[in-house]
Design brief:
This protein has seven helices and nine strands, in the order H-E-E-E-E-H-H-E-E-H-E-H-E-H-E-H. By secondary structure, it is α/β, with parallel strands linked by helices. It has a single domain, classed as Nucleoside phosphorylase domain (Rossmann fold, 3-Layer(aba) Sandwich), CATH 3.40.50.1580. It has a five-stranded mixed β-barrel. Helix 3 packs parallel to helix 6 and helix 4 crosses helix 7. It starts with 8 loop residues before the first helix and ends with a helix. It binds hypoxanthine (HPA). Hypoxanthine binds next to strand 5, strand 8 and strand 9.
């Protein structure tokens, strides 16, 4: 039986040929690419040169795609600059591509970042949040059709999907660098339309503090493949706002991305030691 989560081995060879054996994969969402400037870069590979990269029918500004191999805070990393989304006409399995490639590269940790709308009124544009849990409201799952690991089943446990140990490190490092970091439940929707006020109220009542259109499929696949996961969101807007624009989301991302990048570098420094 084919392993649906597997990726093309030639991509793995191509990336490893850069001479870096990545331990941590990072997915940098809308406007969060700054972190790559803090890396010692071995190679940059456009996603289009990787055969397993899903080709979306619709490209989105701010989501340029490139894989950057190198080291960050001394840790060998594979950084996905940009990602593909289910709302671009792809399957949940395709949207989970970074997690699948990360596992194939031999990474043990996946760090996901995204832009999100704030549901909790205490969250303002520019707030950085730590994902403690998610609610997958996309009505899809990357494990559909997957038979499970050899000899196993596809029923993957999602308790503690966002690794408690990594979350503790992130909170300690945030405190150390003076960054307020709120733990949240992230609701993952299909998109691409933003939420109506009624939907935001619905999400608030379900227990979500933030909402976005990515991440949950990557995290589910990562857990299926045995990766530890850390998730951070940058709140770019108040969810359900009238006249919300993608430009606004990208601008808020740029303004606060520096703080999130510093936090991620500090967390990697701890992963390196620990
Ligand atoms: N809703 C969904 N996804 C988002 C939002 C939002 O308000 N902001 C950034 N990504």
């Amino acid at each position: 039986m084919t392993d649906t989560l597997a990726v093309d081995a030639t991509d793995v060879e191509r990336i490893l040929a850069a001479g870096v054996k990545p331990r941590v994969a990072l997915v940098l969402g809308s406007g969060l690419g700054l972190l790559a400037d803090r890396m010692v870069v071995a190679e940059r590979i456009p996603f289009t040169e990787l055969t397993s990269h899903p080709r979306p029918a619709a490209g989105v500004a701010g989501h340029a795609g490139e894989l950057v191999a190198g080291t960050l805070a001394g840790v060998p990393v594979a950084v996905f600059l940009g990602r593909v989304h289910r709302y671009q006409g792809l399957s949940a399995l395709e949207a989970a591509w970074p997690a699948r490639l990360a596992a194939a590269l031999g990474c043990d940790t996946l760090i996901v970042t995204n832009a999100a709308g704030g549901i909790d009124p205490a969250l303002r544009p520019g707030s950085v949040t730590l994902i403690a849990d998610h609610i997958n409201l996309s009505c899809d799952n990357p494990l559909v059709g997957w038979a499970g690991p050899p000899g196993g089943t596809p029923f993957v446990a999602m308790g503690d999907a966002y690794d408690p140990g990594l979350r503790a490190i992130a909170r300690e490092e945030a405190r150390r660098i003076g960054l307020e970091l709120t733990q949240v439940v992230y609701a993952g929707l299909l998109g691409p339309s933003y939420e109506t006020p009624a939907e935001v109220e619905y999400l608030r009542r379900t227990g979500a503090q933030t909402v976005g259109m990515s991440t949950v499929h990557e995290v589910i696949a990562a857990r299926a493949l045995g990766l530890r996961v850390l998730g951070l969101s940058l709140v770019t807007n108040v969810a359900g706002g009238a006249g919300l624009s993608h430009d606004e989301v990208l601008r808020a991302g740029r303004d606060a991305a520096e703080a999130m990048s510093a936090l991620l570098e500090a967390v990697l420094g701890r992963i390196n030691v620990g």
